[in-house]
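INFO batch 0412 | record 1 of 1 | parsing
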Amino acid sequence: MLPLTQEELLSEIEMLPIDLKREIVDRILTSITPINNDIDLLWTEEANERKRAIETNEISLISSSEVFQKITIKSANWDWVMNLPQRYIKLYKE
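INFO prediction complete | emitting tokens
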């Protein structure tokens, strides 16, 4: 079998079912940006902690418009980076 040209490959992909296209995209993205299990684990822990805090009313949710307003204000001053959990800062220093 001869290798496909780029155009032939793209035409073939267009005919595939969506679930197979998703798998192909996932594999391509993984090959471009390999999975970092340490970071994934930290994000999972963070998501679980945030979920717990919301469910126990330890924190309250705010609207997206309020979030974007705060981001706009803070983006003028990058001191907000210093408020990141130290475990994230440590990962990026290594």
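INFO post-check: Residues 37-93 form one domain.
INFO record closed
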